[in-house]
Request: fold
Amino acid sequence: MSRRLFFGFHAVVARLRHDAASVDEIYYDASRPDRRMQDFLRMAKEAGVRLIASDEQRLLSIAGTRRHQGVVARAQALSLARNLDELLDVIEEPPLLLVLDGVTDPHNLGACLRVADGAGAHAVIAPRDKSVGLNATVAKVASGAADTVPYIMVTNLARSLRELRERDIRIVGTADTAEKSLYEMDFTRGVALVMGSEGDGMRRLTRETCDELVSIPMSGQVESLNVSVASGVCLYEARRQRMAAGK
Reply:
């Protein structure tokens, strides 16, 4: 079974709460006597996880960054849907999917996974050639969502979107220039929300594959939102509509 690296209190605590048995070992900064570290160590001991006292240099060499906050964990990768067929065959409600076309920043991906989890999206989908993979930075920013939301990378995004359409999932792209507002869209049926990269937006073929384009109304001076913020706005509007419809 493959193993993954987690660092930072939020990411490691989230994995302990979700599946402590999957955590093989935790390296911690033995020089930190503060309350947060002591509470964390108490939680890890109660979960029966192996604790390894370490210094800053060892933590840095394992995590590859100084942003580890004094805790680094090695854990088994959890089993989530690995492809679209596995995912869609078990969903019993209208699918709500987030598609990221060209998001290469791990902080943005982690934040998108976090809002996807909060809004109840069934998966995040991205093309292999223009995306960042799951790594420790993504897991830290996602604060546990990397373990709960399937992140499915596909070889050909346009083809995968057409396959979703064949399963009666509407492909809705977001674009600043779209005349139709996000709030005019019916999200109670199966939908895949497509977000482009910041600056460039969706690629041409991805845009042409969408069934419909919508925009987020902007009332201030800025022209656009960060991709994770825009994802949150759209996904929570979809969730709001579904709750109002009793879905």
User: Anything to note?
Assistant: The mean pLDDT is 92. Residues 227-244 form the longest helix (18 residues). The chain has two domains: 3-76, 84-244.
